[in-house]
Design goal:
The complex is a heterodimer. Chain A has helices at 46-53, 76-86, 102-112, 119-132, 148-160, 178-195, 206-209; strands spanning 2-15, 18-31, 35-39, 61-66, 69-70, 87-90, 166-170, 198-203, 214-219, 222-228. Chain A is α/β, with parallel strands linked by helices. Chain A has one domain (2-228): Rossmann fold (3-Layer(aba) Sandwich). Chain A has a six-stranded mixed β-sheet, sandwiched between helices. In chain A, strands 2-1-4-5 form a four-stranded antiparallel β-sheet. The two termini of chain A are 17 Å apart. The longest helix of chain B has 44 residues, at 290-333. Chain B is elongated and about 100 Å long. In chain B, a hairpin with a 2-residue loop joins strand 13 and strand 14 (400-401). Chain B is of the alpha+beta class. Chain B has helices at residues 2-11, 15-54, 79-86, 126-131, 152-158, 204-211, 231-243, 257-267, 290-333, 335-343, 348-383, 407-433, 437-442; strands at residues 58-65, 71-73, 92-108, 111-120, 134-137, 147-151, 165-171, 177-188, 199-203, 220-225, 248-250, 284-289, 396-397, 400-401. The chains are: A alpha/beta, B alpha+beta. The A-B interface holds A 51, 54, 56-57, 76-77, 80-81, 83-85, 88-89, 91, 93, 95, 97-100, 104, 107-109, 111-113, 158, 162 and B 1-2, 5-6, 9-10, 12-13, 336-337, 339-348, 350, 437-438, 441.
Amino acid sequence: MTVISLKDVHKKYPLGKTEVHAVKGVSFDIESGDFISIAGPSGSGKSTILNMIGCIDTPTEGIVTINETNTIDLKDKEITNLRHEVLGFIFQNFNLIPVLNVFENIEFPMLLGKNPLPRLERETWIFGLMDEVGLGDWKTHKPNELSGGQRQRVAIARALVTKPQIVLADEPTANLDSETGASIIQLMKKMNKEYGTTFIFSTHDQSIVEIADHVIQLKDGKIIENKRS
Amino acid sequence: MNISKIAIRNITRQKKRSFLLGGAIAFGVFIIITIGSFTSGMTETLKTNFTSIMGGHIYILGTETLDSGRVVQVIGDTADLGKAISTIDDLVEEYHIRSQVGMGEIIFGSKSTTLQISGVDWNKEEMLLKTLTVTGGSLENIDNPGMLIIPELIADKIGVMAGETVLVRMDTVTGQKNVGEFTVAAITKDQDNFSFISMAYTEMGYLNGLIGLGPNEYQYLNLHLNNIEDMDIASERLAAELKKTSPVDLGKDDSDDEKEDQRHGFMFGGFAPGAVEEPWEGTKFSITTLNDIMEPVLQLVNILNIVSLSLFIILMLITMVGLINTFRMVLIERTKEIGTMRAIGMHRGSVRSIFLLEALFLSLFGAFGGIILSGVTTIAAGLIRFTSDSPLGLFLNNGKLQFITSPSGILKVVILLSIMTLAAVYMPARKAARMKVVDALRAQY
């Protein structure tokens, strides 16, 4: 089942007096449960494509659909609800809320919904997730008390806590050493298998690209390779 | 719940900055609440002191014109007055009748000083007796003719002691000079430190004889009400009833200078008898209330309150400018965080709420600090005992300043502060909420 579809998507940015054409007519489909890598060198348009899939940016031309809904037609409230209900985000810089501890950071997206789970159920689910990502003993620690790898594990748990259909990870290993980076990708893969969540991650590191089932190679804003293993 | 938690924790992120802002708010709140408490306390103290000294809340003065055209202060035939008073009987707790020497001269040996003497019916002045603190002599035989109670200040000035005899030079109601002999029965602490009036007391019958009044005559009828709030209603009802049979002057209706002077004359010791513009038949009643006497003081209190409110608003405006600038900085510092929260599903309204709540909590913490500081200050200031000749004597209650902090006053300050805070932070909060998610996430700070 296709969950995401990009059709002839372009993205142009104004840069001073000139214009940068970051994405040039990209089209591809993503199936439910895929573990996809969008790979390419810096400036190839990986993050821009992820941003458009994540509904935090809009294409200049073309169509992005999620579950057959054209995201361009949605209002801010609808897009916010879509992001909350369907998407999970993992950022290169972890982007945890500094004033919240590990548990609260993971819990945070759950409380943004209209009907959060009852407290006991919520706590059971979060503690389970924390154990899954290896942070069972770090419940009350603040982000600044964690290593980079641990922070990214918190981010993964936070992305998964609302049981989204799709998780978008923008260069999740870029700020980690290679060993930790590999473990993070392995963790994402494990979650993909366990929960059936579609994972889309961008990277410029060829060594972790191969872990993906589906690789989309970009160069200068265009797809140069779209292969499934 | 989560939004409030984040807002509160955000305050602690920049402790020094939050402390300074909260401190500025606390200072403003401290100023307005302390001044408000002082003025309220001052008003109440003055009311209590005046009520005690004057012997009630409503003062009825009787004046008659003699054949010579001279005006004398006297209430004799009480039938009309009694009937009028019966109409407000439900509002009155006690009735006090008094005669008074406005400006007497007390002489002991070679020393003399001025004082006022009230002639009182001791059988009906329990309330007054309770307020007198005896420092010399006793109150045992005070209802004997010629017994005099004088304040400590007067006793010290002329060097007299209890049991000794003094002379008092005074004017009779018809303006004649007379001298009376008194025995100092008791020396009292200056009443409620209200020493500027230097009121002495004696048995009314004896004083009446000296000032030319009959044994059943008096000059003032003072009414002590059950509830001070009924003062205006009671005086209006009384005046309406009295007007049916007698000419009546109402203190609050008198606006010309002469009557204004009369009112102050009444306040500080009785009208000076003299010729008057138009003679009248029978007794003319003048009704003055504590509110009329307090009017200049209340005006002063109002001015003080306006000054403190203006000061508070100016202080708060300066603080609000600081608050706006702080939250503009906060907006920059937390751009990426805002982007993250929006990306994971937070609505614009919630982002705005975090900013508004953070500012509101900061203000409320500051206000709480200001209230505590004000409470500590007023309690400490209220413990200081001033000497009886202190320039603050007018505002002292048993030698101490009185502070009355009204919860509704505090609530008004907190509400005003909250509105100002929310208005100040609204624009940065709105800007944060309307930020484009992608731009916020790209921020490098």
